[in-house]
Amino acid sequence: MLSVQTDTGISIFEGLQIEELWHASRIMGFPSALWRLPHTNEIKLLISIRDGIRKCLPELEKMTPGFVMSTFYWESDQEVLFLEGDIILTFSEENRITTVDNKLGEEHTEVKRLVKLAASASSEEPAGASPAGLLLPIDPHLDAKARFERTVEMAVAAIRQNQFKKVVLSRTKDLAYTEAFQPAQAFQRLVKAYPHAFISLVNLPEENEMWLGASPEGLVEQRSDGIFKTMSLAGTQGARDAAGTIIPKYDIRWGEKEIEEQALVSRYIIECFKKIRLREYLETGPRTVLAGNLYHLRTVFEVDTVDLNFPELASVMLKLLHPTSAICGVPKAPSLQFINDVEGYNRSFYSGFLGPAQVGGDTNIFVNLRTVRFKDGIATFFAGAGITEDSVPEQEWFETELKCDTLLKVIGSSF
Ligand SMILES: C=C(O[C@H]1C=CC=C(C(=O)O)[C@@H]1O)C(=O)O
């Protein structure tokens, strides 16, 4: 068996599993984040022991290893949440610890308590034991569909009056959950179901909430070899046929509405590059990509920041890009105002951004989409849809239902 070595021998974390450590960290009130990057088979667990949740400016290249999280409403001079990586553990797909990065040392009292608690949980309850029916329907707001469709009609009217070209309108869907609900297990299910997505679970004890997600949309990626990436992701259609089988990618055809919707996001990104006079980018796409039960159109933009001698590009682009027109609209100011006036609820961290900064030298920040918040017994799912002149209100509603299903179909059933 693989053993995890430290300077003083085998690590005290040896043999512990994700669910046990997650649970122990939660009980001890430590902010923590669990994630799996797209197309990788490593899971990282970060636990912030010393400082609680800090706030800082997202100057990504200057940060110590940690996890960043921001609400949708964020001005570029504002601070974001920062979970310092006091402990960062790497797990294999088989749920075995492969590396331990423990800044506090194994003799630290809180670290010892954490390990002891995790170990006692492992002897009490076999991982995987969870009672049935943890996500329970609660009376939906009967008028939720009508209300959402009305906001879409208002948006289409505003677009026809030239107030803006596109706006992304969103809504929520609530289910009840019991204490028996095991978020780390739900995370593991998403990891298995969606290899292309950024799977994350964040515990914010000060807000008394947890966020679980399977995001298909990278916002800024900065690799230690100097490669920067961002993407435009928009346009949606269901990926399954009537029999429930995935339709092959090459059979997917896009309408004018989706092509325009995604092109607006690409143009927005290019405008951001123009603002900093950056012309040396590689553009690939648009291509059809699978995101869970949906297909989207995606264009990837790549820059070699070493060649350009521009190490702070990711921080500069984060400020320029957020909120992109994949979650807000075009032009930004009037569409944002419209969302504020019409949407009728607080998006909170939905369509904000989140991800690891400077972990192993890499930064991977994603848009917080296909996400659910667990708070006070209510699981709130969030989903939005890009509205253009050609939008049909009922179709946009069904699109948000499909987006909620990305998580619900995996974590809502057969517990
Ligand atoms: C706003 C969401 O998705 C965005 C990303 C991809 C496709 C989108 C669309 O087709 O509307 C949205 O712009 C969401 O998932 O809540």
TrEMBL record:
<dbReference type="Pfam" id="PF00425">
    <property type="entry name" value="Chorismate_bind"/>
</dbReference>
<feature type="domain" description="Chorismate-utilising enzyme C-terminal">
    <location>
        <begin position="145"/>
        <end position="403"/>
    </location>
</feature>
<dbReference type="InterPro" id="IPR005801">
    <property type="entry name" value="ADC_synthase"/>
</dbReference>
<protein>
    <recommendedName>
        <fullName>Chorismate-utilising enzyme C-terminal domain-containing protein</fullName>
    </recommendedName>
</protein>
<dbReference type="InterPro" id="IPR015890">
    <property type="entry name" value="Chorismate_C"/>
</dbReference>
